[in-house]
């Protein structure tokens, strides 16, 4: 029995259609280029580098002495991965590099003045491959015990 030319043409067409569909499915990862209803895309984006979440840096200030009759006071600060420390109050702004651990920074006090201190610690920026950590500033107005950083200077 001989197949008619129309049947041969129909079978070849179906085979070509099947191969085109198979190629389309395989070239899109086997899911037709869609995931959960997304539209198919012409190109595949490279996955973004996922950086691990950084551990927060610790930042503490030792309690201050108040009241005091002294015109200076040493502020002691602990900062993980520290770059600089800044102490701001009524007598001015005092900045020092975080080059020792813990860092001590001497500030001057105005006579007969209540000094409300703000201590800031800048965390070093560190790159690990494509991931960048740090580069931010932590700030506090309380010591490690939760008490306010207030120094009352009394000169008599």
Note down, in words, how this protein is organized.
The chain is of the alpha+beta class and 156 residues long. It is 15% helix and 35% strand. It has 1 helix and 11 strands; from the N terminus they run H-E-E-E-E-E-E-E-E-E-E-E. Strands 4-3-7-10 form a 4-stranded antiparallel β-sheet, with no helix packed on it. It is rod-shaped. Residues 32-37 have low confidence and may be disordered.
Adjacency order of strands in the biggest sheet? 4-3-7-10
End-to-end CA span: 125 Å
Radius of gyration from CA coordinates: 34 Å
Count of alpha and pi helical runs:
1
SSE order in H/E notation?
Answer: HEEEEEEEEEEE
Sheet/helix structural class:
alpha+beta
Query: Helical proportion?
Result: 10-25%
Biggest sheet statistics? 4 strands, antiparallel
Mean pLDDT: 84
The share of residues in extended strands comes to 35-45%
- Low-confidence spans: 32-37
For the secondary structure, the number of strands is: 11
Q: What best-fitting shape do the alpha-carbon axes yield? A: rod-shaped
